[in-house]
Structures are given as C-alpha cells and as structure tokens.
Backbone:
C-alpha cells in the first residue's frame, strides 16, 4: 500500500483521537476487541518523597499469568515468574537515581505470547514527580456532540490532578481520586470546547511540588463542513494483489483529506493535502487484512473538520462470499399468484442477477444503486413453467480474478394446492400407560395454521400454530388413524393436501409383546392354582367313594406339587429374561422436571444500565407456551407469549425505587409449570444487579472454579475474599458470567468469597457484593465411575441409562444435571461388593440434554463429583455438512482434517465415528464451523464419520446428524467397476451411458478409451457415481473403455483402473450379440425394476483366434428376492416365547405321566388278595366310622361282606 503520511502524523493522530473514538461509537463498533494493555503504577512508603523507595506494580487486565516482564528504555528487561499464577506482580526499584531513571513499560504472558506493553512511565531525576500521561475516551455515540472523558494517569496514589486549557491561567477542573487516575468529563462537546489541554499533578501535602506537564492534547469538533463522498475504483470487491483507488471528494477546494479504516483507527489514519476538492488514496497491492469499513473526512488549517462520509465496505478476498435467496411469502405458490425472490449477501455496492437452473442467461437484474432491504426479484402471475430451481449471483461491472462460489438455491413449486405435510409421533406411535403422544405436523416453509383430523371421528378437528398436537389415551379413546393439513397466510381459505395417515396404537386397540406375555404368565399362574385346588378336591372325593390306596394318593399329590414348583421356577426364569423388571438390576427412573428457564437483563446504555433495562426469559424446552415474570415471589408482573426462539422480553424501562426487589421467571407448557429461574436482584436505581456466586466442590490439591453470574453482558468481574481489601482476581468483559480459578486448593484458600460486577469503562459503576460463599476443604471419597450404557448423543424419544458405580460398599447415589440434583438412589445393604446405581430416562425430550454427573455418599462423607457426561439431544437444528480436507482417502501415517459446517454461530461441535461409544472429539467455536484433526491415521481410523453441533446454554439442544462421510485409510484406491446402460451392444444412432461406480464417495471419476491419449470425460466429486453419456452413437464410439478415480487433491495414493468394457455398435436393433464383455470374467448385473432376472451363459475367445468364440457355458438362472420380510420379533421376545412354550410342554409331560397310572391302578385293584384290600378299605373307612372297634364282630362281618370285585 502506498499512502502519503506527513511527518506530523503522530501529532495529527493525537489531534483526532477524540474524533476517532466518536467514530467508533457512532458506527456501532463497540464490539471491536482490542488487545488489553496491562496497567503499570508506582507504590512508595514515603508519601511525601516517593522517589526515596519506589516499587513498580504490573497488573494483567483480564486474566492470570505465569510470567511478567518489565522493560526499561526498550533495552533492559527484567522478568518475574511467580510461584503460582496471579494477575499482578511487583518490581522493586528502590531509591530513584540517575542510573535507574528512564522509560518503563511492562507485559504479561498470554497463551499466544507476550501481551501489548503498558503505557510508558517516565521516571525523571530524584525530587520530581513522574510525568502524567493524557488520553481520551468517548462515552456516547452522538455525533456531533460526543460526551468525552479525558483520562489523566499520574502513576501514584493520593495525588491532586489539575486540568489546564490553553489561554486560561487557572485550571478548568481538578480532582482528588483515590487511585492513580483522574477522569475529566466534557459533556456535549461544542466548538467552544476546542483547544489544547494539559494535565499536571502534585502531592496533597506538598502543593508546591508539581509534576512536569503532560503532552498537550488538542480537541477538534467534527461536523462543521458538509460530508464528502467515498468511492472505490474499480470496485469495492478485489482479489489479493490487485490495486485499488479510494477517492474522497468534497465540495470545498484546498482542504486536507483523511482516510481511516474503522477496525484499526489508530494504525490506519492517512491524509493528503490537495489543491482540488478530492483526494485519491492508492493501494498498489491489496492484502487480506485490508478488508474493512473505510470512511473519510476533510479539515482546514485550523483543524475544523467535516462530517464523516458514509462507510464504504471493502472486501479483499479470493472467493466471493455466498449469497442466499429467500422466497416470499413461500416457496410453494398457487397458480396465478405472485412471488418475490429476495436475494441478499454480505457485499454492498454490487448488483445482483437471478438465474434459473437450465437457462444460461439471467432472468432479471438488480442494479447496485437500487438495492436496499426491501428490493427483490418479482415473478407475477406464476404458471407451471415457473417451477424450478433459482439462484442469485453477484453482478460485477469491473474485471477481477475473484472466484464465484456455489450459491444456495430455492426450489419454487407452483401447485393448485399446497403440497402435503409430514406427520410424525413423539416419542412413538404406541401409547404407554399414563403417557400422552405428541403429533408433529411439519413443512419446510412458513405456515399460518395446522389442522389435525381423526379418521375414526369425522367431527374431530384440532388446530395449532406450531404444528404440535397432544393426544391422550384416556379409556383407550386415543387410538386410531390421524392426518394433518395446513394453510398459508397468503391463501388462508385454501387447505393443503392431507399428510400420509399415521396410526396410533395402544392397549385398547393393539397388544404389544410385553403386554401379551405378562398377561399370559399371570393367567397361567392363576390357572395352575385353580387346577391344584380342583385336583385336591377330586382326590378327596375319590377317596371317599372309591377307597383308593393311600400310596397312590400321596404320589399324585406330590406330582401336582412338583408341577407347581417347576412352573414357578420357570416363571422366575422368564422374569430374569426381562419380564419381571427390577430383579437383576435396580433402575431408578428419572422424573425430569420441566426445564428451568434462564433469566438475564439487557440494556442499550452499557455505562448506565439502569436508564433502560429489559429482562429476558428463555426456556430450553421447545413446547413452552408462555412465560411469567414474578417479583419478590408474589406479585405477577406480566406474561409474554413465547416467541419462535422460545424466549420473552419484559421491559422495565428506567429503574425507579418501585423496581427494586428479587425477580425470577417461570415457563409454562401444556400441563406443567417449570421451576423458577435463578433470582435476579435489583437493589437500587443507579447500581448494577446483585450477582450470584457458586463453586464446584472443594477438593484438596485440585483446581477449583468459582462462577459469578452477573445478569448483564459486557460487564467486568472482580472476586473478593473476606479480610482482604483488594480483589484477589479480576476479569474483563466475558459475557454474562465469569469463572475465577484457584489453581490448587489448599488450607490457605479457605474462607468466605464474594464477587462484584462493574461497567467495562472507567469510571466504574459497581454492583453490590454477592452473598458470601464459604469454601471449606472436606475429606472426600474418590470420584465414581460414570457413563451411559449407549452413546450420549441421542434422538428424542430414546431410552438413556446412566451408570454410576464405586468400589465402596453400601453407598447412596445422587444424579446431577447442570449442577442441580434431579434423582437419588438409596443404599442397598443386601447386595455385597461394589455399589452401583442406574438412573433411567425412559423417553428423552428436547429439554433433557445437558451436563450430567453423579456423586455417592455414606452418612456425612461425600465423594468427589464424577467426570461429566454431555447428553446431547439431536434433531432440533438443521443438520451440518461434513467434508474431508484434502480428501476422504488418506495415505497411512498422514493427517486429515474433517470440517463440520453448521448453520449457527457460537455452537459446540462433536465428531462421531460409527461403532464408537462416545464422540471422538469436541470443539467449541465462535463461528459456524469446526475443524477436527485426525493425526497420523491408520487402518483402524477407516470408517463412517458424522458430526453434530449443539448449544451449551440451553439443554444441549443439538442438530440432526450430518450425512455420514466414509474415510478410507489406504495406500491404493479400491478398484471401481464400469458397466453400460442399457447395454454394451448399442444400435447405431442410439444413446448409451457408461457408469463408473466404486465404494469411495466424494471423489471424481475419469473415463479412458483404449488407443486415445487423453481422457474422454471427467466427472467431479459432487456425485457418488460417474455417469458418462454417449449420444447418437456411431462407429467411432466402438472400443474398449475403462475408468478410474480422479481425486481433486494431490496425493501419493495409487490409482488402479476398473474392469475393461467393450462397446459394440450394431447396424440395426434386431442383431443378436453378447450383452457384456470383460477381460477378467466379472460382469455386473443390475436388477432395476426386476429386469435382471433370467438365464445367463458365458463364452470366451483366445488372443490367437479372436474371431472364434467358445461354446456357451451351462445356463445359470438368476432369480429375484421374494421381498423384504418384516422382522417383528426381537431376540428378547423370542427368548420369552420359548420359555412359555417350555412351561406348557412341562405341564403336558407331568399330566401325561400321571394319566398313565390309571390302568395300572385298575389292574392292581382286581388282582389284590382280599386281605390286602380289606385292610386298605378299613384304613380308608376309619375316618367314616370312628365309633366302631377294629376287632369287633361287626367289623369282621363288614370285611367279609365287601370281598367282591369293585369296579373302579
């Protein structure tokens, strides 16, 4: 870049410092992150003569560091490595002498190297105060009329600061701050405030001892002349290495023109003095870092300046940024209606052109000067011919070497009715006891309203705005077939086609395997008990009537009893197989509460948030219907409907005394209200909200993190320990919360801690201290082993089991989600050995994601927390894309980068491999893509990879999984195969397609013909198959073809050709010839639409006799599959069914054995002698005739009288 920079550039830079800060604020550039400088100051134990003993202190502004460096006169260096990481160190100088006087600066060590040096401290001869430094700071974005803070740093504490203006004998302002810096404010800057200012200091007790004056600072007010125009030639978008001319033109001649880049105001300030009314700033060879927002202005000899020009965005890139196209009101348009295609891109000042796929010329143009936020391409009175895929491109009027990237497209559909939506059920289509099912009706474009219909009830109809319908199954009345439709806002009277029907089943209309088997076991046990009772009664009846022998009676009773015992044992076996849950493993079902919402505050006055405050409440659950904000736990302030981002705003406006109090919010779902959010406490009308401090468990010798939640973004944080005046740690603006780290927790670190927040810029406005948090080191058990039985990346409705275990016996377990306790499992004294607990989420919902951990305890002693498990619930955000760089085929020992490209920024990415239990890598990025490095890959790294992204602040809601990407680790590409469609024998003048296919995807193909030096065709890596069409075939197309992979990256991997395919051309259609030819005897047969089925035979010919073919082989018949068979039985169900069959068979065997005893008993009764039978009958009748003696005559006569054959 060649730009004129006069010698007084440094002075000019100071002159326009005020202006530059106002520019930054006016353009909304407060988010520019400058590398923070450390702070350097002096401390002395001689307040009236500080030069007698000087100690220099260096403080890191936002982080702790392990090394600090002190520089003197840019040559001498002294560095300190403290015993532990800290944010400030001291350098002892001692008494100031001529030898140690000079210019001092300090630095601190960051992860990327040394920081920027601090401001320069000038120590002069003994007896003099150090020379103060002087700079400015803008507070508000008004132009003209900035509010300006002039900062004077005096290096010592307890000094008096005086502000002088040229032309005035007395100081215009003075301050006595408690620190080393004074802030002089000039509100609503006017031309009267212009002038040269200096700052001086003196010791309070010695008003005659003054410091040297600071360097002068001249303030200039912009906006006294009209603003100029800034243009780029040849254009605002150029490639690196090309030249660019920025022309700044105004209405007045003889002015000095200045150009600056907003992203780096202090280093990119260029100016030219011309006699014309314009100035040209030339960039001879552009670089990527020249990209930015440029503006210009002009000023006269008295430094009175003009208004600023409009900002001009300059792009220096080798590839155009991508444009995006959006159809309004929808991509689905009814015949005869109008549609607008809105094309947007990040590049301003460039025209746009609309293209339709299949047409070479653009359909419409938009000039660069006519493009604004409401400009679009219009298609009026659309017809079916307008259906197609549209894209938009940049339209350049100058030449450049920038490459045009691929653009997103919009598929426009013209229909008589909107297309049908999709209908799905969550968590499944089968009702569970006491559970409801959510039907989700979805389309890919904006919808006014959804409707749900129930085929079994014609009068049933439900409506929903978001497409979710909750169906309960009370008394079995929820089962049936459902479908849905929708209508769009542009055509509210036209409903779409209905979705495909979806059938909901449950106990009232559908019997599941578990239900059938459980009922069968229960009925079986009842029938066995009834059968046992009937057998006993039957035996007693037979005993009374037929007088059966007691031995047989006892045997029958024993057989029936054994049958009952065997059946019970088999039932227990079935229970172990899975029907009787809870016998082997005790699982604790997690009753997930409605997710707790997040509460925070936002303001458009970062330096005075209380002037206008808005409270925001956000829920991680996608089914939230409404939000409620409460104050002090009672008075209902307001309710807000949930937006599409599942959040709601509650504007409070300017804070008054009536606003002070404790706030929290709830989220309402269909049938439940969430737990309250963390309480936000407003304690005053001019003070920041009170922060909340928390910490992880304190473990001796380990790192401890303290979390300070401050409610507002962009605030600084400070950590205090009871008994110490100064903060022990400070952090800059890092969001709404900060994490302070104690590297190694020891006894000296115990105590009460609190934190405070403050505004980012001086003078700081502080919050009240948080409630104190006591840190006490307790003896703890070692942390448990914690994992999920399956992958922690799950889809909604999946079943998740957490396993928490420890070698210690008889322990109780607690499960935590995001630091909050959600479930517990009491100790089990019955099971010896190691303790374990299993926590079960039967059906995972969108709000169930998060960071889970567990702990165990025994009375008063707790364990350390386990390592966290990140549970990610997918299918909430659009799926990302996964690409391999340089390509998906990698040589062993090399490295490959897998880039996961998402849709949203600030997400956390995870890389997954098929077959792996947990994600391989995690990355948290600020952009919308993450790179995963597979270093020195081997054969075991081959496989299918996919990735997801998810947000870490709201229940780890994740995206759909990306399409799987196959990574091959090999030194040789696998061999592809080549075949012709419809045949390799083609009649003259017809068309044929040669297909090259292989197992490697994402790699191009190239087609070769034998005898030709160059390849015929090339197919890029965007397709998995290479299709090479040959149209209007002739004799010149005959020949032998082969194909191979053609990677679009440099690689040492060997490439091998496919099989050789011979293409023959016949004179007419009816000529018979072989269908395929092959050198190696391999033929690929496709069964498209069942046309590959039939009888095949093959023959061959020798090189010596190429015209003679062999006899055909025996025919081989190829048949087609009978069709897919639905496998309805799982392994568990087969095992359970088999055990029930065993029970039934065992019952039949026992009954068969007993039945065979009846003929034997009949024979035994007829052949028994009279005495034996008499004795048996006597013993049987003793119960019936208790009063008759055994040896009485009557009994003898009875025995004689019954000695006759008795039929049984």
Residues:
């Amino acid at each position: 870049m060649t730009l004129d920079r006069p010698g007084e550039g440094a002075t000019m830079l100071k002159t326009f410092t005020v202006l530059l800060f106002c520019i930054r604020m006016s353009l909304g550039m407060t988010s520019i992150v400058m590398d923070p400088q450390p702070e350097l100051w002096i401390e002395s134990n001689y307040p009236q003569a500080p030069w007698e003993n000087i100690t220099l202190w260096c403080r890191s502004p936002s982080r702790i560091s392990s090394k600090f460096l002190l520089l003197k006169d840019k040559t001498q260096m002294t560095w300190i490595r403290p015993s532990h990481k800290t944010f400030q160190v001291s350098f002892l100088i001692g008494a100031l002498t001529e030898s140690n006087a000079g210019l001092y600066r300090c630095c601190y060590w960051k992860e990327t190297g040394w920081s920027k040096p601090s401001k320069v401290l000038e120590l002069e001869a003994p007896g003099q105060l150090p020379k103060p430094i002087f700079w400015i700071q803008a507070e508000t974005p008004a132009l003209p009329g900035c509010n300006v803070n002039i900062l004077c740093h005096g290096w010592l504490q307890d000094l008096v600061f005086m502000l002088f203006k040229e032309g005035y004998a007395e100081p215009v302002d003075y301050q006595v701050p408690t620190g080393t810096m004074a802030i002089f404010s000039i509100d609503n800057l006017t031309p009267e405030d212009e002038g040269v200012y200096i700052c001086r200091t003196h010791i309070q007790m010695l008003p005659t001892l003054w410091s040297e004056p600071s360097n002068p600072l001249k303030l200039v007010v912009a906006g006294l002349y009209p603003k100029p125009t800034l243009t780029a030639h040849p254009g605002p978008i150029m490639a690196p290495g090309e030249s660019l001319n920025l022309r700044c033109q105004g209405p007045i001649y003889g002015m000095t023109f200045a150009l600056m880049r907003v992203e780096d105001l202090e280093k990119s300030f260029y100016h030219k003095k011309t006699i014309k009314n314009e100035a040209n700033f030339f960039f001879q060879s552009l670089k990527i870092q020249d990209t930015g927002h440029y503006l210009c202005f002009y000023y006269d000899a008295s430094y009175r300046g003009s208004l600023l020009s409009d900002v001009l965005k300059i792009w220096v890139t080798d590839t155009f940024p991508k444009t995006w196209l959006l159809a309004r009101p929808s991509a689905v348009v009814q015949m005869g209606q109008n549609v607008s295609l809105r094309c947007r891109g990040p590049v301003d000042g460039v025209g746009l052109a609309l293209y339709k796929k299949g047409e070479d010329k653009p359909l419409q143009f938009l000039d660069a000067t006519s493009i604004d936020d409401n400009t679009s391409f219009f298609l009026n009175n659309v017809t079916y011919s307008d259906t197609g895929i549209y894209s938009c491109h940049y339209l350049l009027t100058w030449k450049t070497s920038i490459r045009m990237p691929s653009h997103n497209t919009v598929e426009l559909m013209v229909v008589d009715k909107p297309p049908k939506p999709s209908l799905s059920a969550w968590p499944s289509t089968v009702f569970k006891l006491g559970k409801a099912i959510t039907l989700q009706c979805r389309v890919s474009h904006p919808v006014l309203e959804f409707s749900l219909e129930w085929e079994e009830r014609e009068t049933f109809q439900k409506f929903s705005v978001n497409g979710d319908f909750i169906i309960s199954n009370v008394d079995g009345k929820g089962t049936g077939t459902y479908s849905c439709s929708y209508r769009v806002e542009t055509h509210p009277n036209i409903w779409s086609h209905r979705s495909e029907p979806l059938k909901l089943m449950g106990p009232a209309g559908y019997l599941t395997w578990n239900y059938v088997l459980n009922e069968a076991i229960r009925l079986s046990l009842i029938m066995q008990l009834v059968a046992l009772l009937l057998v006993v009664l039957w035996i007693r009846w037979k005993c009374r009537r037929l007088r059966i022998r007691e031995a047989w009676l006892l045997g029958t009773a024993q057989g029936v009893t054994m049958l009952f015992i065997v059946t019970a044992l088999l039932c227990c076996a079935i229970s172990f197989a899975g029907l009787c849950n809870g016998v082997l493993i005790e699982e604790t079902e997690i009753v997930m509460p409605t997710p707790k919402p997040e509460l925070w505050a936002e303001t458009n006055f970062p330096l005075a948030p209380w002037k206008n405050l808005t409270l925001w409440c956000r829920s991680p659950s996608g089914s939230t219907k409404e939000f409620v904000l409460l104050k002090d736990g009672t008075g209902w302030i307001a309710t807000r409907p949930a937006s599409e981002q599942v959040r709601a705003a509650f504007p409070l406006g300017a804070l008054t005394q009536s606003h002070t109090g404790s706030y929290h919010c709830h989220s309402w779902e269909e049938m439940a209200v969430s737990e309250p959010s963390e309480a936000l406490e407003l304690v005053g009308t001019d003070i920041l909200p009170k922060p909340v401090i928390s910490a992880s468990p304190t473990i001796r010798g380990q790192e401890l993190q303290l979390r300070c939640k401050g409610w507002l973004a962009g605030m600084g944080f400070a950590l205090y320990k009871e008994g110490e005046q100064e903060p022990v740690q400070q952090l800059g603006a890092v969001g709404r919360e900060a994490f302070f780290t104690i590297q190694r927790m020891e006894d000296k670190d115990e105590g009460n801690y609190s934190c405070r927040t403050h505004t980012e810029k001086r003078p700081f406005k502080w919050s009240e201290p948080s409630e104190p948090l006591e840190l006490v080191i307790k003896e703890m058990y070692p942390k448990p082993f914690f994992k999920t039985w399956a992958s922690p990346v799950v889809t909604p409705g999946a079943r998740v089991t957490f396993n928490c275990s420890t070698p210690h016996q008889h322990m109780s377990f607690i499960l935590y989600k995001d630091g909050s306790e959600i479930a517990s499992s009491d100790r089990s004294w019955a099971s010896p050995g190691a303790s374990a607990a299993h926590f079960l989420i039967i059906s995972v919902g969108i709000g169930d994601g998060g960071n889970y951990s567990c702990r165990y305890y025994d009375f008063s002693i707790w364990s350390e927390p386990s390592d966290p498990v990140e549970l990610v619930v997918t299918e909430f955000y659009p799926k990302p894309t996964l690409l391999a760089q340089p390509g998906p085929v990698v040589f062993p020992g090399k490295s490959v980068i897998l880039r996961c490209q998402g849709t949203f920024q600030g997400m956390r990415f995870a890389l997954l491999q098929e077959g792996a239990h947990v994600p391989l890598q995690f990355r948290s990025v600020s952009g919308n893509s993450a790179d995963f490095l597979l270093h020195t890959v081997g054969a075991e790294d081959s496989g299918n990879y996919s990735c997801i992204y998810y947000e870490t602040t709201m229940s780890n809601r994740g995206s759909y999984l990306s399409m799987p990407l196959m990574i091959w680790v090999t030194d040789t590409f696998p061999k592809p195969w080549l075949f012709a469609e419809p045949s390799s024998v083609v009649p003259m003048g017809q068309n044929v397609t040669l297909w090259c296919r292989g197992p490697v995807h994402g790699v191009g193909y190239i087609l070769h013909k034998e005898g030709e030096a160059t390849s015929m065709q090339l197919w890029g890596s965007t397709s998995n198959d290479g299709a090479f069409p040959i149209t209007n075939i002739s004799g010149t197309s005959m020949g032998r073809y082969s194909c191979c992979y053609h990677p679009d990256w440099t690689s040492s991997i060997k490439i091998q050709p496919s099989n050789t395919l011979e293409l023959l051309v016949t004179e007419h259609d009816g000529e018979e010839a072989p269908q395929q030819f092959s050198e190696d005897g391999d033929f690929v047969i496709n069964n498209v639409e069942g046309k590959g089925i039939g009888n095949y035979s093959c023959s061959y010919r020798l090189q010596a006799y190429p015209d003679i073919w062999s006899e055909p082989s025996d025919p081989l018949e190829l048949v087609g599959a009978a069709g897919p068979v639905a496998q309805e039985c799982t392994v568990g169900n087969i095992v359970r069914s088999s055990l029930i069959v065993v029970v039934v068979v065992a019952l039949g065997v026992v009954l068969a054995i007993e039945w065979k005893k009846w003929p034997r008993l009949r024979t035994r009764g007829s052949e028994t002698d009279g005495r034996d039978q008499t004795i048996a009958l006597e013993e049987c009748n003793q119960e019936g005739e208790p009063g008759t003696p055994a040896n009485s005559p009557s009994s003898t006569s009875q025995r004689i009288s019954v000695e006759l054959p008795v039929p049984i």
The chain is about 10% helix and 35% strand. The two ends are 124 Å apart (CA to CA). Helices lie at 9-15, 17-26, 513-546, 550-577, 1131-1155, 1157-1167, 1170-1181, 1193-1201.
